[in-house]
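Same chain as my last thread, 132 residues:
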Amino acid sequence: MQKEDVKKLEFSLDPKSGVPYYKQIIIQVEMAIADGRLSKDEQLPTVRSLAVDLRINPNTVARAYNELEIRGIVTTQQGSGTFINTQEIEISAVERERFLAEITRPFIIKAASYGINLQEIIKYLMELEKNI
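reply #2:
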């Protein structure tokens, strides 16, 4: 049986990024729509369930969902949930590169402080990709 090549949205928050949690949630939803992990009419996790998963206040998730709704990206149906409303969001290559830099620079700097060089990281990532 072959592994499915299905992208799935898994939220994660970085407390050290300086970006408020609600904005991190918004960005992750937008990126997931842009790369096809989320599409029109798909349901997002409930406010409560996402708050529990991320170990944050439900008001933070509600704020993110509310802002997404104001932007027209999602629609909330009372009693049913929050659904993707928009079909397309485009994230430019420059913006994707900026996000990538934000998450990789601290990692590379930390790895370097342990004496791990970039070539070792690349080799490890390539091996890891083979097993995914």
